[in-house]
Amino acid sequence: MSQTRKFHQLDVFSAEPLMGNALAVVHQAEGLDDEALAAFARWTNLAETTFLLPPTHPDADYRVRIFTIDGELPFAGHPTLGSCRAWLEAGGRPRNSGQVIQECGIGLVRVRQSKSRLAFAAPPLRRSGPLDEALVSRIADGLGIPSSEILAHQWVDNGPGFCAVMLESAAKVLALKPDRLKLRGMEVGVLGPQVEGADSDFEVRAFVTSEGVPEDPATGSLNAGLAVWLTGAGLAPDHYCVAQGTALGRRARIFIDREGEDIWVGGDCAVVVDGSVNLG
To answer: Domains in the chain, ordered, with CATH?
Structure first.
């Protein structure tokens, strides 16, 4: 017999519905097995679908499981912010005012509230350091550019497996016409600085072909990893804004704030669907 559970669909990294990255959130997911979670994530056909559960860690406010259409992720950024917003919208009350503790595959992630905006503390990188030359050449080939146009590169993997390359400008990033077959199996982030006077500091694109989504419109995990790299290497200031999704007709904005040892990755979330779903 199916059970009715609360359901939200949100637009993450945008205050304006339909301009960020969509996320489906199923509340009260107790009793659903892995096969049911995976099947529903495939059915939504979104980049990620999350399932909220009671926490198992004594310090956590809730636990989340994050699924793509291909499988489960230990962590992802826009599902973290969207799940937190959905949990709050459903009446969730954090143990500590102004800060929510999320439990997920990589452990505990802090999410802070600042007016209407949420921000998560960037988790530590699982893999860092420069890419090897063979991988840089493969990425350049997949992006359709000479390797010489890649000015800097780095592993920025905090769970999903991203590596990143920097180009000369936002215009060069937006001009890319990647060959997705050549990028198959890789998670590649590309960024370039904006012109002076733009409403953001960098343009970012995320190619996540292994998840069945050729390009992601707004990627919190990638931008968290980028922030660790860029601020640590002096390639970006401690406070900056990223535009993402432009090539897809979106207007996502991701806000980075480095405060002491913490890097906060923030953005707005718009609730688009508030209802219920019938699942087993």
So the answer is: 3-121+266-279 (3.10.310.10), 133-262 (3.10.310.10)
